[in-house]
Write a structure and sequence with these properties.
Order of helices and strands: HEEEEEEEEEE
Number of strands: 10
Strand order of the largest sheet: 1-2-3-4-5-6-7-8-9-10
Number of helices: 1
Shape: globular
Helix content: 10-25%
């Protein structure tokens, strides 16, 4: 009886460990960015020591297959800056894709993934001097009504990252 119980216990523990590992290692399921859906109030520190503020409305569109972002800077040095992104999960490739456009004429394209409880959209491009760089957005410290977001760049193929912008999100 003890032997049967021990085998059953190890089997259950093994299955639970296997399921936990599988969920951490999966390639971005469609629910990967659902935490982001909603209305958000944003705050960030500017280089001059002032606080910037903004809003972000995130909604599912096109039969729930696309996540649409509506970003607006409302206070501080960036007042008037507006951007939109469209994110979609490609079930054939198992990857998220995002396109960002803004009222400054920017067009950025990203690929999303999950790493160490963070959601990351990343892209490779070149800087003004023509050198290869990596840019990424990192969603982290994700809770029901808050999370943090960073805009970063790496000029050494991802060995070191420079934080360019950090935003605190609070659900409205």
């Amino acid at each position: 009886m003890k032997k049967a119980f021990s085998i059953l216990l190890f089997t259950i523990v093994g299955i639970n460990f296997s399921v936990a590992q599988q969920s951490l290692n999966e390639l971005s399921p469609p629910e990967y960015f659902d935490f982001w859906i909603g209305d958000w109030e944003l705050r960030w520190g500017n280089s001059d020591g002032t606080i910037g503020k903004g809003t972000n409305n995130i909604e599912k569109i096109l039969d729930g297959k696309v996540i649409k972002e509506n970003f607006k800077a409302t206070e501080g040095a960036m007042t008037g800056y507006v951007g939109k992104s469209y994110s979609v999960y490609n079930s054939k490739t198992g990857k998220w894709k995002q396109t960002w456009v803004d009222n400054q004429g920017a067009y950025l394209d990203f690929t999303g993934r999950f790493k160490d409880e963070q959601r990351i959209f990343r892209r490779e491009t070149t800087n003004e001097q023509g050198d290869q760089i990596i840019q990424r957005m990192v969603f982290y410290k994700i809770k029901k009504d808050s999370f943090m977001w960073r805009w970063e760049k790496s000029e050494d193929n991802g060995k070191n990252w420079e934080i360019l912008w950090k935003i605190a999100y609070r659900r409205h």
